[in-house]
Amino acid sequence: MRFPGREIQALLGSAIPTDHARQTLADAYIDMGLGRRPGQPWRVLDLGCGAGGSVDAFRAADPEVEWIGLDVPGSPEARERTRTDAMFETFDGVAIPFADGHFDLVYCKQVMEHVRRPEPLLADVCRVLAPGGWFAGSTSQLEPFHSLSMWNFTPVGFERLLRDAGLTATELRPGIDGPTLIARRLVGDRRWFADWWGNRSPLNRAIDGYGALRRLDPRWLNATKLLFCGQFAFLARRAPA
Known about the structure:
The chain is α/β, with parallel strands linked by helices. It has helices at residues 6-12, 54-61, 76-79, 118-128, 155-164, 178-187, 202-214, 218-228; strands at residues 43-47, 66-71, 87-90, 103-109, 129-140, 167-174, 231-238. The chain has a single domain, classed as Vaccinia Virus protein VP39 (Rossmann fold), CATH 3.40.50.150. It starts with 5 loop residues before the first helix and ends with a strand.
């Protein structure tokens, strides 16, 4: 049986989930309450927060969350920010201006592909996480250039960067497929593309159909979707004390 994702499955091992193979957005990690401690405030950093939209979702999950948004001064998305109901900070893109172990969760949705120096930034993410803290978000693989993007990471390459920074990737999940994002860049952001961010995009739907026909398990489907994805979601953790 042809299995395009065989190599990626072997390299990523347990980081490829076995529970389901649904297309995933980074938003799915917000409701999980990652790093929350009973009786203590939930300390969240949105790294590359842009306009600051995630604060609403975090407050819906925990009205007492201590949410801080961080971005570089030249971010096109940050320049469009109008809200003033949360704390926003700027930094140089590498050195996060907070103490060691300050956050329970660093959230980073579609930001790493825009980062000029990803390796030292990931090391600083590890530094500001509390022991056992979480790093969750998403990034690009086969997505065309957009909004000053600089990199496209393969899931295997990103897992290696996380490991080098002192973080352990616990899961990598496929997002919207790459050919759909390429088509979007060619024809423009037409209305129907909006339906494919959180729902099954065309190639992911085709892979699901083949998987159902052959009765393939979710790990096989996830590995194959990760091979062809335009974006993927990630969840990583700093080792507990």
